[in-house]
Amino acid sequence: MCNAELIESLASAYDAAPKIDAHTHLSWRQPAATAVEDIVFYHMLGAEWNAAGIQPHVPEHRRSHSHSPTDWTTLLQAAGNVAPRIRNSALARALLAIGRDLFAITRQHLDANFLQELNAAVASRADLAAWAEHLFDRLHLVAVMSSNCGGSADLQVFPQRVHQRIQPTYERDFFLPAKHARAIVAHIKTHHGIDITDLDSATAWFWHDMTSLYQVGARIQVKWFPPTELMATLDKDRAAAAIRSALAGQEPSPEEAAALATYMFAQRLAFARAHGQTVQICSMAVHITQDTYTLPLTSEVFLRNLVAWIDRTPDVNFDILNCDPVTEPFFLSLARTRPNVYLCGVWWHAMSDAWIEEMFYRRFLTVPLCKLSGFFSDAYCAEWIYGKHVLMRSGIVRALARAVHAGVFTPDECPAVLRQLLYETPARLAGLPSTREQPVSG
Question: What is d(CA 313, CA 325) in angstroms, rounded to the nearest whole number?
Answer without folding.
Answer: 26
